[in-house]
Amino acid sequence: MKVSRTSRLNGEYQKEISEIIRLQKDRMPGVKGLVSVTEVDVAPDLKTAIVYVSIYGVSEAETKQCFAALQESAGFIRHQLAQVMRMRTVPALTFRTDSSMTYGAKMDELFKTITYSTPVEEENKED
To answer: How many other C-beta atoms can be found within 10 angstroms of the C-beta atom of residue 118?
Structure first.
């Protein structure tokens, strides 16, 4: 199976951006809580990249504040990325929230509330 260059770059950017956020949190005011880079989508021309992040904060307000701080720190993160990645151009970063983890946790809770009964249990209840 042939893997394209952009898919390899997506994985590499995801790993490096995650590491930059983890190591440079003290230089980015407002970035608090657990920040997880879930996916990076680099454009085919390598000039832009969409970074999907999942943020777990204490409250909804703290999560929004952390996301705003990440958006403000996009230039700093791009600069740090240029130091690590040896490429001619480093894409401009656009952050977006990824709520799939929250949605999955909500669905898990809903599934836990559902009670399943097998046909054999139903027959025993009638007797």
So the answer is: 8
Q: Would you say 13 and 38 are in contact if contact means Cβ atoms under 8 Å apart?
A: no
Round to whole Å and give the CA distance between 8 and 6: 5
- The CA-atom distances, in angstroms, between 16 and each of 19, 69, 80, 125 are 5, 19, 9, 58
Could you identify the residue written with the tokens 């399943």? 116
Total length of the chain: 127
* pTM of the predicted structure, to 2 decimals: 0.76
Tens digit of each residue's pLDDT (9 = 90 or more) over 36-85: 899 999 998 889 999 999 888 778 888 889 899 999 999 999 999 999 98
- Quote the CA–CA distance of 20 and 22 in Å, as a whole number: 5
d(CA 53, CA 34): 10
In the chain, where the domains are located: 5-99
Tokens at residue 13, please?
Answer: 């950017």
Q: Is domain 5-99 in CATH 3.30.1370.100, yes or no? A: no
